[in-house]
Amino acid sequence: MSTVAYEIVDVFTDRPFAGNPLAVVYGADDLGGDQMQTLAREFNLAETVFVLPPVTDGATYRARIFTPEAELPFAGHPSVGAAVTSMRRGLFPAGKVVQECGAGLLPIEVTDAGRATLTGGTPSLGAPRDHGPLLAMLGLTAADYAGGDQAAARPASCGLAWVFLPVRRDALARIRVDVPAAERLGITDISVFAWSDGEAHARVFVPGTAVWEDPATGSAALGLGVWLVAAGWLPADGISSYRVHQGIEMKRPSLLECTVTATNGTATVATVAGHVCPIAEGRIAVPPFIG
Known about the structure:
About 20% of the residues lie in helices and about 40% in strands. By secondary structure, it is an alpha+beta fold. The protein has 2 domains: about 5-120 and about 275-285, Roll (Diaminopimelate Epimerase, Chain A, domain 1), CATH 3.10.310; about 125-275, Diaminopimelate Epimerase, Chain A, domain 1 (Roll), CATH 3.10.310.10. An 8-stranded mixed beta barrel has the order 1-2-3-4-6-7-8-17. The protein starts with a strand and ends in a 6-residue tail after the last strand.
C-alpha cells in the first residue's frame, strides 16, 4: 500500500493540546488535488497542509491548504505550522523563508525555538455591514455591540477575508450561531472579538462546515489589524503591536502575536506570529485517484 508521511502539530501555542491542530503532509508530490482533498476529509481538522517543492523562483517550498470541504489560497495556522514543522524536519534551516501558495509568495521567519512570524498578503477592506442581523445570527442583542460609526462591522483581509464584528467581552461566551441565518446573510467566515488596550479576545466561526469554530486563526488575526487601523483603534501611521487570545471557550487557548503597519490611516502590512507544538507523526494511505 502506498503511503505518505504526516505530522500533527498544535499551532499558536507553546504547549500540547492547545492552539489549533494541523495535519502537515510530506511526500505528496505526485498526488492530485482530489486525493489531497480526500486526505483532508480523513484528518477532519480545520486545515491540512501539503508541503511540496516550489514552482516559482524565489520560493523555499510550496503549500497547498485544504479544509475538509475545499482548497484555500491561504490560511494562517497552516502557513505557520508548515514552516516550523519543515524546519524541524531539516528541509531548511531556521531563518527567513518564502512560502508559495495560492495567495502568492509570503515571507516567513522561523526560529530554532519553534516559532514563526508570517507576513500576510496585501491588506484589503470591505464595505461596512449592518451589525443588527449579524448579532441576531449569533444569538446576541444590540446591547452586546461594541462598535460605532467608524468601527463598523465589515470584512478585512490579508489573503483571506473575514467579517469582523466588535462586541462586549462578556458576550463571547453567550454566542450561539444560527447556521440557517448565516446562510441567508451569506456569512461564511466571521470573527467576533472584544478589544481592550492592545488585546483582542476572539471567537472565529465558519458556519455550516465540518469544523465550524476555529481555536486559532492566523488569517483572521492579520485581517483584524487592517480593521483596527480603519476603525481608528490603532494608530493611523507607523507599526503597532497587538495580541489575539482565541480558543478559550473551546478549551484550546491560543495566543497570536501581531503587528500592523499603517500609512495615513490605511494598513499596508500585517504580521502574525506564534509557536508550534509537535503532537504526533505517522504515515497515511494514499487515496485512489478520482479525477
